[in-house]
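job 3f2a | input accepted
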Amino acid sequence: MSHSSEQPVRWYHGVTPYQWLVLVLASAGWVFDVFEGQIYAITRVEMLTDILGDQASKENMDFYADLFLAVFQLGGTFGGILFGSLADRYGRRSMLIATILTYSIFSGLTYFADSLFMVGALRFLVAVGVGGEWAVAAALVAEEFPARARAQAGGIFHATSILGTWMAGLAGLAVGDQWRYAYLLGIAPALLVVAIRFQLKETQPSSPTPTGSATRGNLIELFKHPLWRRRAIFGMLLATTGLATFWAVTIAGLDLTRKLLVDQGATAADAQSAAKFAYGIVETAGGGLGLLAFGPLAAWWGRRQTFWAFQLGGVIVVPIVCFLPTTYEQLLAALPVYGFFTLGMHAGFAIYFPELFPASLRATGAGFCFNGGRMVTSFVLLFSGWLKATVGLHLGLSLLALLFVPGMLIVLLLPETKDQPLPE
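job 3f2a | predicted structure (424 res):
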């Protein structure tokens, strides 16, 4: 009788040092990737107050805050599709380096932004690198780890995003209203390029397919094949529910805290500082637990059922956290649960999307799903700003949480990939 028939093999059994190295370097790129996105959420009040000057009314601040978030989503869409395609054609390592350099350089240049146009242009270019990095790194992790370890490794990869959010939160607290210095820190990830260049092996394009090498990284080929097309479209719609609720609902923990404190008489500066801590540290800790939990649950329950459970949790938890807490301490206690359900499902994207596509289209397909969802999200964000302004923050967030419902239906239209080999 074989050893495997006598007792379960732990998921990490047999994982090689090189596979762990791949996970560490891919995760490090993702940590800074998230930092570049979150630092805007943390510092946007100070940034827009400075840039808008005498025009920094609440209406203008809210409008441009959502506009630049929408621009960021569009940049991520472009970058994810572009670099995902290039990674399938030319290899993962070289494109991982290119994406990290892209978001690092343009984040650093944000230090010099002195107009709304410059802020918008630089946020778009940072997002090109951010969207591309995720597509390449997620495919790399999925391919390097054995089937029994893919869910856990993918979950760990995406869960390290919490470190990026914590870094952004601490940076925001450290720089105060000197927001430019937080973006200058965004240059640091460029140092990762040295480790990636000398430690990672360049992946070779997959062996020739029946239709020839032109299928590698070809978006037209992705949509020409009926199976891959169906998976790409429904995967993109699933990502839309997660991304739209993240940018419209999850990061609103910052707004919930700030509003509660201002309504209770705190100064705007004190409320903003406390809100950075509540969202950037406390809520994010709960979100990190959700991200870490998704992998083991997906390996046990299956990918679709785990997505379904997290989204149902989001529908239930968001209105509770919006309306029940009446003190800062109560809100701090509730925000980790809020983060657990609204953020936790995102680990599933890194696990699930690479499992839907063959090697020649893996980064392309995963990049389209995750970052194509950003494009639709950009329009949802503009709607969310109007909705919150019209019906109020608390009711607006509760209504936006209903976006999880179509996600619960969409995931039922996708295949279960638990215990299945990667398509070839």
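job 3f2a | The radius of gyration is 21 Å.
job 3f2a | closed
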